[in-house]
Amino acid sequence: MTALTAEPIGRVLRSRLVAALTAPHGVDRYLEQFNPMWAAHEVRARIVDIRRETSAEGDAPVATLTLRPTTSWRGHRAGQHVLVGVEMPGAAKRLTRAFSISSAASAPGDEFTLTVRAHAEGQVSSYLVEGAEPGEIVHLSQARGEFTLSESPATPTNNHLLFITGGSGITPAMSMLRTLLRDGYDGHAGRRVTFLHYARSLEDQIFADELAAIAEADNGVTVHLRHGDHRFSEFELRRLVPDYADVDTWLCGPAGLVELVTDAYRDSSRLRMEFFKPSVARAAGDEDDVDGVVTFARSAVSGAAGTATLLEQAEELGLRPEFGCRMGICFSCTATKTAGTTRNVLTGEESSLPDEEIRICVTRPVGDCQVDL
Amino acid sequence: MTTNSTTTARRTAAPAANEDTPHSRIAARVGMTPEQLQAFGDEMDAIRQRVIADLGEEDATYIRNVVKAQRRFEVAGRALFYLPPAWPLAVASLSISKILDNMEIGHNVMHGQYDWMGDPALSSRMFDWDTVCPGEQWKYSHNYIHHTFTNIVGKDRDVGYGILRMDPDQKWHPYYLGNPVYALLLMLLFEWGVALHDLEVENIVAGRRSLADNKPLYPGLIRKIRRQAVKDYLLFPALTGPLFPLTFAGNATANLIRNIWAFNIIFCGHFPAGVASFSVEETEDESRGQWYLRQLLGSANITGSRLFHLMSGNLSHQIEHHLFPDLPARRYPQIAEEVREICERYGLDYNTGPLHRQLLSVARKICRLALPGRRSPEPAPTPAEQPLAA
Ligand SMILES: Cc1cc2nc3c(=O)[nH]c(=O)nc-3n(C[C@H](O)[C@H](O)[C@H](O)COP(=O)(O)OP(=O)(O)OC[C@H]3O[C@@H](n4cnc5c(N)ncnc54)[C@H](O)[C@@H]3O)c2cc1C
Ligand code: FES
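ok -> C-alpha cells follow
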C-alpha cells in the first residue's frame, strides 16, 4: 500500500491538523505501527534487489542494492549521498553510514541504487553486501551533499567535464555519468566527458560492462580505467586533458589518490571532491598516554588529546559545553563524535563509530578524535 | 534521620581520621567503613557494566512492544469516544495509553535508557511525552537536579517539589499547615505541577530567583501547554461532533487518572518512612560509592506483579532506578535481586513494601509534617517490620 502517502493523502498526513492530533509524537510514529513503508515525513526504503558487482571472491566484494523508498523521498541530484540506518540483527542497534547514490538523478518516490563495498571489518558495509536480504527495510535520510553535477557559474555550458575516481569513489561519478546519458547527452553538442578511474585490479573493477559499453558508443565520453599498480600522475592527466586545471572536475577516492590529485590542481577552483572516510587516524592500544589531537569542530579549536574526559578537555580549551551531573547519568552533555575513537571511562568500552552520540563527561579520546561542539 | 541497619557485625566504627570527611559520615550512619563503601561502590559498578554489556535485541523488542501497545490503546481510546455507551472503556483505554506513555516509555526514554539503540523515536534527545511538561525542561529538573542531588535537602527540589514539607529538616512555617491540601491538589494536577516545577516559584517568593530567570522557559512551556490543550480539549472533542462534551470530559478524566496514578507511584519512591535525607555538607566531594549509597538510602520500592511494574514504568523499582538511571527499566526487577543480596551483606536497609503500606506511610508523613517539629513522622520501622526477603 505505497499509495497511502501519495497526494492528496500525503498532503493530509503532513497537514497541521494531523500534526496537532498526533502531537507530541508525530504522525510517523503512528503510521509505522501499521506498515513500515507508511511515512509522511521520515524516509525508509525496502531493499528490492541485491546484486553482486564483482566476480572476485576477494576480500572486498561489492554489491548494488536497489531501494524502493517511501513516498516521502524527495529525490536526489546526481552525486548526492544518503544516510542509511541499518538495524543490526541480534544487537538491535541502529548504525548509520553514508552512501552515495549510484543511479541517475531520481524524482520523488523513485527507486534508486547504492553500490557498497564490503570492508573486511566494516559492520554496515559487510551486512549490506553479505547479510541483508531483499524485503528488508532500511532507514534513510533525504539525499544530501553538495558534490553534485553542477558546473562553475563562469563555465560555458559546452564545457568539458572530468571525473577522477578511485575504488568505491566511483559511485557518485557513476550517478552523474548515468544522469547525463539518460537525459540526452550524446556528445554531439561539442562537449566532452572524461572518466578516469583507478581500481585495485581488473576483478575489482565495478560497472565494467556498462563502462565498456559507454566507451564504445558514439557519445563523446572517454573512459580510462587504470588497474593495479598504475597510480595517478599529473603527467598522465596533462596528456589526457591538457587544460585540466580549467575543467570542472569531480574527485572522489581514497586518501592517497586525493592527495596526488589536489597537488596537481594546486589552487584551481574547478576541483571539487568528496571524502568517504573522515581523515582521522585510529589510535592504538591501551596505554594511558594518548597521542593525537582532539578537535571541537563547531568552535574550531583543537588540542592535544589527554587522558581527561572530553568535557574537561573542552573546558580547558575555553569552551563551555552544556553539562549537568558530570558523571554520566543525566545526558545533558551528549554531543556527536564525528570521527575517531573514544573510550567510555565507566565501562572501558571503546568505539570508533562515526557520528555517534556520546556523553562527553564520561568519554575520553583514544587518539585523534573530532567532536561536534 | 537515621536508617536502621539489620546487621551489627559490620558496625565497626570508621577510623577517627575519616569521621570528618563528608562521605564517611553517611557511611558511618549505616555502620560502613570507608573500605566497605569502596567495595560496595565497585559491586554496583560491576552490575551496571554487566547489564550494559548484555543489552540487545530483547530490550529493543520489549520497548517497541510497549510503544506498540501504547499506540493501540491510544487509537482505541480515541475511537471508542464515537460510541457513547463505551465511554468508560474509552476513558480506560486512553488512561492506560497516557500512563504507559508517561511512565514506561517517556520517563525511561528521556533518561537515555534506549539511546544505545540509535533510533530517533526512542532517543532521549528527540522524545517528548504526552503531558503539559516540555520534555526538554523535565530532563533538566529531573535527570540532572533530582538524580544528581537525590534527597539532599536544599538541593533536590523533588523533596516537597517546593510546595510541600516532606522532610523534618525543612524548616516549618505556618504555610505548611496546608500540607495535606497541597498534596491533594498536586495529585489531581500532577502534570501541571511537573510542568511548573522548573519555574521554581518558591525560590522566587523567597527572593533567591528572579522572574527574569524564568523568561527563557516560557515559550517552550506555553507551546507545549497549548499543544496538549488543543489536542485533548478542542480537536479530538470537536472531531466527535455532537459528542463534544462527552469526549472533552473523557479526555479530562484520562488525564486526571494518569495524574493520580503517577503522583502516587512517584511519592512512594522517595517519601515513605525509612527513606533517608542528607545535608549539603555531608555530600560535598562525594565518592562514587557514597553516591550509590545515597541513592539506595534515599529511595524506596513498591512490591507488586509484573503488570504493576509495567504500569508504574518500573518506578516501583525506584531504588534500582536511582542506582542505574540510564539502564533500561525492564532490567530493574532482575537487578533488584542482586542489589538486595548486596544490601543484606553490607547490612543496609532495602526499603520496600506493598503499595498500600507505602501509600499509608507517605500520607502519614504529609500530615505529620504539616505541624511543626522535627520528630520523625512515625517510629523508624524495626528490621522485623521490614522483612528483607520478599
Ligand atoms: C559522503 C560519503 C559517501 C559514501 N559513499 C559510499 C559508497 O557509495 N559506497 C561505499 O561502499 N562506501 C561509501 N562510503 C563509506 C561508508 O559510509 C562507510 O564508511 C563504509 O561502508 C564502511 O562502513 P562500515 O560500517 O562497514 O565500517 P565500520 O564498521 O564503520 O568500520 C570498520 C573499519 O573499517 C574502516 N573503514 C570505515 N570506512 C572506511 C572506508 N571508507 N575506507 C576504508 N576503511 C574504512 C574503519 O576505519 C574501521 O577500521 C561513503 C562515505 C561518505 C562519508
Ligand atoms: S553531564 Fe550528565 S551525563 Fe554528562
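Chain B is about 55% helix and 0% strand.
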